[in-house]
Amino acid sequence: MVATHGSPHLTPQEYFEWEAHQELRHEYFEGAVFAMTGGSLPHADIALNVASVLRSHLRGRCKVRNSDAKVGISDDGPFVYPDVSVTCDERDRTARKFSRYPCLIVEVVSPGTEAYDRGGKFALYRRLKTLKEYVLVGTERKTVDVFRLNEQGIWMFMPYGEADEVELSSVGVRIPTDSIYEDVVLDLSNG
């Protein structure tokens, strides 16, 4: 994410109108906008694999959205672009600008985004009352970290590795790690 210099403080409505005319996607935080940088091919392949598997399992029950779909932390923002989001809430079924009630969010992490995805972005997502699972998928190694909200309101950490089957209890789906990384060429030079 890169700060967009020279942009004025925008209201949420001004942000939606302004972004509709931009070539790049921009996240919105407290009136400021930040350009979204492009991802790597492994990043794109992983996100597509996850979205495809979820879509095939959840068709007709839930909306599976890719990184072109915004999630609003509240009706006034912040507005962010997760790599994959799933909402089974009827209020999101006909949403036009952004989802507000996701139960599952997936971020594909790279060395440049991992700290933010684990820290600041996860803190934002935890403000979503409907969110039950937050998933971080590695691009350098076959790792999938699932953070799951338990019945006591505590976020539990479940790490999965190369030969595991990832359980996503929020949507009742199990995905083999191999399916997440199918046809993905990882950049092992940094790992």
UniProtKB/TrEMBL annotation:
Cited InterPro entries: Nuclease_put_TT1808, Restrct_endonuc-II-like, Uma2
Domain (Putative restriction endonuclease) ranges: 13-168
Superkingdom of origin organism: Bacteria
Protein name (Swiss-Prot/TrEMBL): Uncharacterized protein conserved in cyanobacteria
Species in which this protein is naturally found: Rubidibacter lacunae KORDI 51-2
Lineage: Bacteria, Bacillati, Cyanobacteriota, Cyanophyceae, Oscillatoriophycideae
